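2024-03-11 09:14:02 INFO receiving multi-entity request
2024-03-11 09:14:02 INFO entity count = two
2024-03-11 09:14:03 INFO echoing inputs for audit
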Amino acid sequence: KQEVTQIPAALSVPEGENLVLNCSFTDSAIYNLQWFRQDPGKGLTSLLLIQSSQREQTSGRLNASLDKSSGRSTLYIAASQPGDSATYLCAVKRTWGSGYALNFGKGTSLLVTP
Amino acid sequence: NAGVMQNPRHLVRRRGQEARLRCSPMKGHSHVYWYRQLPEEGLKFMVYLQKENIIDESGMPKERFSAEFPKEGPSILRIQQVVRGDSAAYFCASSPPWSTGELFFGEGSRLTVL
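2024-03-11 09:21:47 INFO inference complete, emitting structure
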């Protein structure tokens, strides 16, 4: 059974700081890994999608890496801003035959203070 | 292109009543997924549907819960005889048939059972 863990559960940083969020998964047989952002009372916004054959993806100030063999992914946020405050979720897609069910971590709650 | 639309956004039911949650996928998307987010828990997969077919319902509780995605109209998640433990946010996601595996989520429906 795939278990997804995110560390830390909560993080508070001053504005402008670079930061790293961690995600680990127990079964390396994954199809892809997706990072989401969730604002309070809102839905999920897809940030980055990394296929199992890829090592990293970048979008603006965000960079996500994937090391399948060690079961780890990191989300790097450069020059953090108060608007980055949200919960960040990591999700892994299984490689079974059909469907796109994702296994989610519980998230890292990020607070960026002005 | 409108995103995934869910309604109602908030629903209050008394124990024993029925709850119906609706999801309209993004235009061109024929795959729909339902996830549940319990307080302090991560998102859990419930069911994956294509038009008129349930592909994977391995995450659905065995009783009281059902889902459909008819040829015409939105996907519906139906919870009969609700109990307090059903109080949660229910998220719908969709993807196109040619997807790389990326899911697009709606804003969620928040069910409160009194």
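2024-03-11 09:21:48 INFO post-check: Chain A touches chain B at residues 4, 31-32, 34, 36, 41-46, 49, 51, 89, 91, 93, 98-107 (CB under 8 Å).
2024-03-11 09:21:48 INFO post-check: The first strand of chain A starts at residue 4 and ends at 7.
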